[in-house]
Amino acid sequence: MNHNPYALFYDIYQAHYDHALKAIYLDAIQTHAKEGKILEMGCGPAFIGIALAELGYDVLATDISEDFLSQAQKNATQAGCDLAVAAHNILDPIPFDVDHVVMGFDVINHLETLDQFDQALRHIYAALPDGGMLFFDVLQCDYIRTMVGHVEALTTEKGTLEWRITQGPYPCSFRHRLKRDDRVITLNQRSFAAETMTTLLSRFTWVEHLPLSDRTVYILKK
Questions:
Q1: How far apart are CA 211 and CA 197, in angstroms?
Q2: Of 65, 79, 190, 221, which sees the most CB atoms within 10 A?
Q3: Class of domain 10-139+192-221
Q4: 3-class secondary structure, 121
Q5: So where are the chain's domains?
Q6: The dihedral formed by the CA atoms of 162, 163, 164 and 165, expressed in degrees to the nearest 10
Q7: 1 pLDDT exceeds 50?
């Protein structure tokens, strides 16, 4: 069992960070959530949260991984901005006062059951005020299938990181295997068909959805 399944993922984020996707989020947020407190859930390195803070937004960045929260704070310091961070699991009720929620870069795909997807979305809905916005994305099953079999070796300051993707335990899922020296971690990601996501999101008002080559970005309102 992995003590911290996200411990080796920061180098993957650094090497493959999708700056075009970040730009899509920033444009959507500035269009549909011009003011208010932003909660970035599953922030990882918090590049979205940092960019929003630089634009003048009041941002709270949360993640389940203390390693990522520490790195998020370092990134914010290097950027010269003030970013609040807090530990939070997206399966738990949201104890923070927020106006809008951002959950970018396939965060929800780290959950493995339909009930867990619904649970996370119910907590977000409950935390949002009327008119509050949710911005998030979901990996497409076709993309997941194309990634099975991917093998890559990343050269990092801490040594070579071996990254391999295999078929996950569900038809629309894959398993990451990361290895550096003698340390090995595995982590599954799962998605669902667009029709299933439409049903899960029926409690929200649809504002826009953006089908991309690997994922769909949803813009929703309570």
A1: 13
A2: 190
A3: alpha beta
A4: helix
A5: 10-139+192-221, 143-189
A6: 170
A7: no
